[in-house]
Every structure is written in structure tokens, then in C-alpha cells.
Specification:
single chain, about 280 residues, alpha/beta, five-stranded mixed beta sheet, about 35% helix
């Protein structure tokens, strides 16, 4: 391999007195972007959340100071105002500050709130997206988030409102009738409530569902079920947060794409998928 193919592209300078808001992806360090890797190696201070694992933090540069700022529902957590104040204070002291958040900071990750606070305080910042758990988690489970024969749209939904209660303000009939694939984030606590609303709005109780806990990590756990049984099956299987819930017929493609299945089993499943498409 030539030298030009083994060198990283030129990266932007991580300026002292600035904050980089960076997505770390859902867990597998191999899913970090080059910009995220670069930021980890250059930062003076890394303010990281509860979903950033040790394998990613191990990539921090020598001398970097690690600040845990995790927020997990139902558990003691840092207050958002305190996290934001820390980012501003560190930057104003001339430090290179990396705010490292699991998944993508701007998909139900409060990244927008923190960026707005930095902007209001006059702190320079850079926004670096990460791979969100819905995309990566489903891919690692062998489920494409879209398929041209199954769904031409996908809808992301948070499992709770700002105060922690269920998302009561959503248009459930519109979601049940207009979204062929629904992805629920942070929904375990209110999954039974949400499934009841979707079924009451007309979604078939037998709609396929997959639950993916701790996506892309060594502790990943996958449960396939259907809508009316999803909450009970999640509890029975010991599914823990963080978890993604996918609802829709695209889940059925897993039989043909499951990374843990044998090539023979996948080939048989592909034939069944094609048979159903030809018949339908």
C-alpha cells in the first residue's frame, strides 16, 4: 500500500479556547469518525456522557483530563446547566474542550441545547456528527433501516418528554398510518404505553418489532417480537437501556441478513423474502 493511502487527511486545528461537540457513535470504537478520533487525540479536556465507553476514552491523548457528565433517566445525573457551564468555563480558560456524546449529539442528544448555549456565550465551537444508534444498531443486527421494497420513510421518536413523562403530544393516528418504520429512542420505560397508543390508533398488533440493547457493543442483545408483546418480551429478556426499538415490516429482513446466521440459513431466508415479494 502506498504512503499516500495510509496517511490521514489533513484535519482542522483544534484551537485553544474552543469546544468541539462530537458524536462518538453508539459504542463500537470502530464507528468513530476521523474527526472524532482527531478530537480525542488533541483535546485538553473531554467532557463525556454515560454512553461513551472505555474503549473510546482509551483513545484520548496523553494528559487529557476526563470529566464524566452522564445523564441517564432515573439515575443520579449531572444537571444540564452545570454541564454547559463547565464547557464554557473550560473554554474561557483557554483549554481545548471536547464534548463527547454517544451516538449523534443532535438526535435526541441535547447537542442543540449545548451549541446554543456556547453561541450565546460567544465560545467558538465545531459540530461533528456521529453515527446514531438507530442506523448502526439495526445494521449490526442485520436490519436495513430502509428498503425500497418495504419502506420509503422512517420516523424517529423519543420515548419521553423533557420532564421524563411519556410523549403525550404526538399525533398517534398519523404515526400509525403514515410511518412504515418507527424508531423509538429511550422508550423502554414507556414502551407499553406507546404500543397501546399505536395499536389504539390502528397499527396492527402483530407488526414486527425488534429491540436492540447496548447496540454495537460486546453486550448487544437483540429480541424480535411483535407490537402487542414488545414491552412484556423486553422485560422477560432483561433488555436494558440504552435500547433502540424498531417497529415495521423491515424487521423481517433480519432472517436474511443476520450476521450470526449461517450462509445457508441466510440463503434460504432470501428465497422466502423473494417469494413473499412476488406473491404480494
Amino acid at each position: 500500500m502506498s504512503e499516500s493511502n495510509t496517511r490521514f487527511p489533513e484535519m482542522p486545528v483544534f484551537e485553544p479556547g474552543s469546544v468541539w461537540l462530537v458524536g462518538a457513535g453508539p459504542g463500537d470504537p470502530g464507528l468513530l469518525s476521523l474527526l472524532a478520533f482527531h478530537a480525542l487525540s488533541q483535546a485538553d479536556d473531554i467532557v463525556y456522557d454515560a454512553l461513551v465507553g472505555d474503549g473510546i476514552l482509551a483513545l484520548a491523548g496523553t494528559g487529557a483530563v476526563l470529566h464524566h457528565a452522564g445523564k441517564r433517566g432515573g439515575k443520579p445525573s449531572a444537571k444540564q446547566a452545570d454541564i454547559t457551564e463547565k464547557l464554557i468555563d473550560l473554554a474561557n480558560s483557554g483549554r481545548k474542550v471536547l464534548r463527547l456524546k454517544g451516538g449523534d449529539p443532535f438526535v435526541f442528544g441535547r447537542g442543540g441545547e449545548e451549541a446554543l448555549a456556547l453561541a450565546a456565550a460567544g465560545v467558538p465551537f465545531r459540530l461533528v456528527p456521529g453515527i446514531t444508534a438507530a442506523v448502526a444498531g439495526l445494521a449490526y443486527a442485520g436490519i436495513p433501516i430502509t428498503d425500497r421494497y418495504v419502506n420509503s420513510a422512517v420516523t424517529f421518536i423519543t420515548g419521553h418528554e423533557a420532564g421524563g413523562g411519556p410523549p403525550e403530544g404526538l399525533d398517534w393516528p398519523a404515526l400509525a398510518s403514515g410511518a412504515p418504520v418507527l424508531i423509538l429512542y429511550m422508550a423502554l420505560k414507556h414502551l407499553a404505553w406507546m404500543a397501546e397508543r399505536l395499536i389504539g390508533a390502528g397499527l396492527d398488533p402483530d407488526t414486527p418489532v425488534v429491540l436492540i440493547s447496548k447496540a454495537t457493543t460486546e453486550d448487544q442483545k437483540i429480541v424480535e417480537t411483535h407490537l402487542s408483546a414488545a414491552a412484556a418480551d423486553a422485560a422477560a429478556a432483561g433488555i436494558e437501556a440504552p435500547a433502540i426499538v424498531a417497529i415495521g415490516d423491515v424487521v423481517e429482513l433480519r432472517a436474511a441478513l443476520d450476521p450470526s446466521a449461517t450462509p445457508q440459513a441466510r440463503a434460504r431466508a432470501v428465497l422466502e423474502v423473494r417469494r413473499k415479494r412476488d406473491a404480494g
